């Protein structure tokens, strides 16, 4: 018994700790974006989320007023809150998912009402009839593939069964109003493109990768890192690699977002650009993970080498280049009036890194004991750094389409 109680307590503390970690990470990310890019660019990043939040809140208010006056004829009924609830369930980030979720929710509620009314005429409510009704409702929802709304069938059945036939009709009308308002609001009022959201996620991921590169680069350059540091870096890198996979999923959803969008033809180019940027950062995250695994092996004496934290100083300089390039690449994902300058800075960083690569190659020439073995590890580290820079190259790299189109600088006219 004490062991179980301890396990439950540990589980609870772990869940709370994860929530606090996630909240802290979100706050730290926002603060870092403000510090790196300023208030104007930070607001531009969050603009789509602010707009969607405001639209959802207004849609909930409209649904409440409609339900109160159409269903309850102006009397303040608590059940009118179900219409705003239907709005919250219905409104999704894409028009397609909003429409699909709205239809699923209406179907689930209608089926739940019919199931409850049918059973209420023949059976009394008890623990076993309740269980049977839940089983039947869930089977109906899964058979009709109602997705995340499967439980709505059972929930509605239980509420109607306990609160009566009148509640069932109100529930249907509330859901119809809420789902209808949600669909109209999301489709007609500033319909989300989701490519903006994907670009924001890409910018945040680039900043996180850049910060990790800078932390590692400074420690390598100063020679102050340890095996414990290498372990922490590797854990951070693995987490960011997982984030990069999530970001690719976000980019895929951006393609879905234009399916029913009124400006589909004009948005497809941006969707393709976001997709290229997501692939680029996924590759960079994988290469950074490989580089940090090499440092971890080196510090712990894996792969037949004596444990050491000595690496060529030029590798740290090269990683600083990668961090700077990632910073500019992420900034470019959300274009603003400074984008041309940022693009030029990215080009300069990539060009300067060519000289640093040559210096790193010279520093890594095999000399002394275990020279060949060290070269195999150092060479892999260098190759990962060079490949990251190649991925981010806006001119000669494989993902030039990831850079948004930027208008050329205006040419000053000669005075006469």
From TrEMBL:
Membrane topology category: Multi-pass membrane protein
The organism's place on the tree of life at top rank: Bacteria
Occurrences of domain Integral membrane bound transporter (ranges): 71-184
Cellular compartment(s): Membrane
Primary localization class, coarse: membrane
Record's keyword terms, sorted: Membrane, Transmembrane, Transmembrane helix
Name used for this protein in its record: Integral membrane bound transporter domain-containing protein
Highest classification ranks of the organism: Bacteria, Bacillati, Actinomycetota, Actinomycetes, Catenulisporales
């Amino acid at each position: 018994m004490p062991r179980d109680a301890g396990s439950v307590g540990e589980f609870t503390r772990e869940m709370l700790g994860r929530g606090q970690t996630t909240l802290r990470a979100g706050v730290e990310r926002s603060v870092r974006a403000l510090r790196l890019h300023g208030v104007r660019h930070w607001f531009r990043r969050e603009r789509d989320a602010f707009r969607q939040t405001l639209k959802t809140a207004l849609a909930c208010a409209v649904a409440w007023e409609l339900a109160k006056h159409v269903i309850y004829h102006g009397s303040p009924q608590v059940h009118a809150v179900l219409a705003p609830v239907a709005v919250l369930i219905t409104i999704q980030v894409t028009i397609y998912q909003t429409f699909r979720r709205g239809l699923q929710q209406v179907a689930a509620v209608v089926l739940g009402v019919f199931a409850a009314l049918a059973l209420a005429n023949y059976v009394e409510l008890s623990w076993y009839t309740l269980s049977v009704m839940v089983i039947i409702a869930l089977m109906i929802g899964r058979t009709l593939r109602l997705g995340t709304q499967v439980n709505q069938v059972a929930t509605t059945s239980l509420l109607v069964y306990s609160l009566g036939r009148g509640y069932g009709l109100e529930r249907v009308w509330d859901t119809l109003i809420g789902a209808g308002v949600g669909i109209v609001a999301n489709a007609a009022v500033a319909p989300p493109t989701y490519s903006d959201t994907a670009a924001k996620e890409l910018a945040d991921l680039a900043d996180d990768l850049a910060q990790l590169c800078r932390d590692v680069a400074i420690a390598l350059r100063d020679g102050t890192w340890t095996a414990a540091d290498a372990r922490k870096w590797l854990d951070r890198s693995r987490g960011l690699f997982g984030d990069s996979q999530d970001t690719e999923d976000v980019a895929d959803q951006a393609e879905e977002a234009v399916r029913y969008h009124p400006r589909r033809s004009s948005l497809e180019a941006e969707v393709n650009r976001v997709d290229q940027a997501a692939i680029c950062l996924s590759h960079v995250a994988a290469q950074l993970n490989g580089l940090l695994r090499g440092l971890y092996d080196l510090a712990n004496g894996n792969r037949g080498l004596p444990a050491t934290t000595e690496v060529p100083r030029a590798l740290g300089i090269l990683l600083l280049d990668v961090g700077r390039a990632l910073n500019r690449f992420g900034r470019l994902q959300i274009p603003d009036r400074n984008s041309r300058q940022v693009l030029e800075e990215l080009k300069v960083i990539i060009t300067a890194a060519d000289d640093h690569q040559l210096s790193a190659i010279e520093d890594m020439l095999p000399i002394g004991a275990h020279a060949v073995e060290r070269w195999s590890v150092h060479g892999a580290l260098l190759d990962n750094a060079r490949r990251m820079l190649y991925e981010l190259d806006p001119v000669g790299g494989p993902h030039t389409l990831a850079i948004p189109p930027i208008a050329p600088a205006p040419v000053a006219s000669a005075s006469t």
